[in-house]
Amino acid sequence: MNQKKRIAETKMRISRDRSRLYLRALAVICVLFVCIVFLDGQAAKSPGKAPMVAPRPPMGWNSFDAYDCAINEKQFRDTVDYMAERLLPYGWKYAVVDYIWFNPAPGNWNNPKRRFGHPDVRLDADGRPIDKLIMDRYGRLLPAVERFPSAAGGKGFQPLADYVHSKGLKFGIHIMRGIPRQAYYEKLPILGTKATAADIAEPWDTCPWCNNMFGVDSTKTGAQQYYDSLLKLYAEWGVDFVKVDDILHAVYHKGELELIRKALDGCGRPMVLSLSPGEAPLSHARHLQKQAHMWRISADFWDEWKALEHNFDLLNAWSPWIGPDSWPDADMLPIGHISLGGRPHGSDRMSKFTWPEHYTLLSLWCIARSPLIMGGDLLSSSEQSLAFLKNKEVIAVNQSSANNRQVFKDNGRAAWIADVPGSSDKYLALFNMKEDRQKVVFVFEHEMLRGTYRVQDLWAGKDLGAFEKEFGVELVPHGAGLYRLGKQ
Fold this sequence. Notes:
Number of domains: 3
CATH class of the largest domain: Alpha Beta
Number of helices: 13
Strand order of the largest sheet: 10-9-8-7-3-2-1-13
Strand content: 15-25%
CATH topology of the largest domain: TIM Barrel
Largest sheet: 8 strands, parallel
CATH superfamily of the largest domain: Aldolase class I
Shape: globular
């Protein structure tokens, strides 16, 4: 009996040990699984750079096309109110004050070398600024209180950013690359260092179209600290979007771009980094993708067909670089009421784009996933023009498609295609670039699509029926169509 009892106890002990080993192994597996999920999530958030702030192309409004360098706080707040009420439900969330917000009266004098209203400051014989800009004691530019009264008392843009955030939107500003030439001549100190503006500035490096700034020598002690101080100030204000100008063209300022990106990553607040102007050099595509969230691939884009036509080629060339946190930018949408008061480009007018060209513009920007930044004045544009911003199915192409690419562009006809994630469906854009009406046909075999597909017209919001082998549509001159193809 004792032997049988010992055998039974041994079996029970072995069983208990096996159970403990099983539970320990299960615990190890669970820990490993959690670690893998965490690390995978971290990798998804940060493919080679900081956690994503622009997983989709940014959508919003920028003041330049309508107000040039002269927008004031009331105009901006009224625009924000309009966006919050009528555009935010469609995804338009960034409200951006464009350039020269630090000048009390930009260009308010007759410059014989420039148009009236150009934002150059007047200089004396030694190159010193006559027109004084608003800045703090560390050479950091501040909003002019004459135009932005809520900035009084050293508050900067924080009150305006708070207002934008209260409306459910995000706030952005434009800045010029470099350090103010006024800070250089006054030898203002750089925050946190013994260096001054005179130690890091390059007086020979000036923007060819705006003389407010000197470039910064990225190799000098104090250069990184200067940009660190700028981005920390913007973070304190609550800025969500920074458009840096004079950094891509005609000279690619690699050193300063890297300073800015490092400063942005260390400022403590996620911000979209947008670069301007274009055309960005394609040879620097990999560097741009690593440093910025969006960058201008075109020169300043206005309501001219030739410029729109040229962007077909630019967007095609840059299509391999489309992806989360990496958006080749074909520039703002110059539709609606632009150049108020005859500035910055041409006469005060409603966009010269024809209504068919509006469809082409929005269809191309969406299928190529360019950022969607409205340029026209929201307060005085026609409802017909603003309706182009309110088609959820069309906007979904811009925000949620993948593998976007040109299929063909030949003989005045063009087609782009993209995948619908989580589906075998495709998005298709067809374009007639000729001066005459013509049929544009997409042959399914071009993309190895076999079988029957139902086609939905996204602009019209209607089903066009089932098609085999090909789908074609007759388009008016400079017209376009945007469709979803679903296999039947």
